[in-house]
Amino acid sequence: MVGAASRDIAADDPRGWRLGGGATYCSLAAGRLGLRVGCLLGVDRQATEGAVGEFDLLAAAGVRVLKVPLEHGPVFENIEHDGHRRQRWLSKSDRIAVGELPEEWRAAPAWLLAPVAGELGDEWATALPAGSTVGLGWQGLLREFTDDGWVKRMAPTHSALLESAGLVVASVDDLAKETELDRLWAMAPQAALILTAGAGGGVAWRGGRLARYRAAPAERVVDATGAGDVFLAALMTAWLLTGDLASSAALRFAAAAGSCAVEGVGLGGVPTRSLVAARLRSEP
User: Fold this and answer.
1) Which residues contact 235 (CB under 8 A, 6 or more apart)?
2) The pTM is what?
3) Exposed end of the chain (fewer CB within 10 Å): N or C?
4) C-alpha count within 13 angstroms, C-beta hemisphere, residue 265
5) Which CATH class is domain 2-282?
6) Coil vs helix vs strand at 108
7) What is the pLDDT of residues 66-111, one digit of tens each?
8) Residue 92 half-sphere exposure toward CB, CA atoms < 13 A
9) 238 with 230: CB under 8 angstroms?
10) Rg of the chain over CA atoms, in angstroms?
């Protein structure tokens, strides 16, 4: 897993923020779902010093975290309205250099790149071993940090990271309204491309075919932050452990994991394997 940890503004947390970011949520979810995980995680000083509890959660899940110090790490205010998310930014993110990757990890057979604020450049595509299994959380490459403090949706563009991935996941909330789906499919013709829409389920583009999948109903919604990252990590886990790349069964598994994630606060909502299994058994 590679990406930056964000600090997400939270009025109900004594620190005023909670640790977040795609790489953080994906690492914890994949660890709890049974993968052996190493995470190269960009962190600013406040996150390094103030997120001891969150790093303990990662360690308890067997995740080995290598922290890359960032002078500026991403800070977001997430605003939920009518089931959709808007974001304000308080801090952008420094880039994470390929040189930060330890030599012992460079031959890893599977990679999940989860940028949250454009912190991974195209040079990361050249750092991946030939033939490796690659997933991409697209959201961090679809964000523009405007001068008025809002995070604006960018039009998708070709990138080496996109071309390197076999699995690509984004939320409809990450896409500009004028985005044409046919153009998205053309950007990643060799990948399974999944667009999530929260409780509305989503669509999967696989092998030239478009299929819909439905969401798994949550018992309650406490905090939707990170649910898409948990969904991505579950899809990646299914791909690695069963060989199913965004199959119907894998999508159902990921939807169940995502529905569990919204029932808790922050990283505390990331489900274990047993919780996801129970949710699947309860599904009609």
Assistant:
1) 135, 167, 169, 194, 246, 250, 251, 253, 254
2) 0.95
3) C
4) 8
5) alpha beta
6) coil
7) 999 999 999 999 887 666 778 999 999 999 999 999 999 999 999 9
8) 15
9) no
10) 17
